[in-house]
Amino acid sequence: MTKEAVQKVERTVNFNRERVLVVDGKGWHVGVIGIVASRLIEKFYRPAIVISVDEGMGRGSGRSIKGFHLFEALQASGSFLEEFGGHEQAAGLTIKEENISLLREAINVFALEHLSPETLMRHVNADMELRLGN
Known about the structure:
It is a single chain. The chain has helices at 2-12, 33-44, 70-76, 100-114, and strands at 21-26, 48-54, 57-63, 83-86, 90-96. By secondary structure, it is of the alpha+beta class. It has four helices and five strands. The protein is globular and about 65 Å long. The longest helix has 15 residues, at 100-114. The protein has a five-stranded mixed β-sheet, with helices on both faces. Helices cover 34% and strands 23% of the residues.
């Protein structure tokens, strides 16, 4: 699933416009979509929502990065969702399949206003500086 999700992101996402990744697939196992969302963050360092679609309904799981409140983003896009819940860093949702593209658009409009390009840059925290050699 992760490989398929990464391939979909690489084929379809315009990284200049889309700050939140929303990827869906038919028959993906709902028990691991949160793990797939976390792996997308590891690879692309953007908030990610992964949706498993079955019989016209999608069940999704989202993960976020520091500095982006995922639950607030879903609240702003809530008119396209059947149900959702969560907090700043993680969320779950239910959505009709035909609304997935509308969610993708709405959550990215929210992200353009609330997620700066600087926040999308990985940061490394160091405890101390070590010198090599003598």
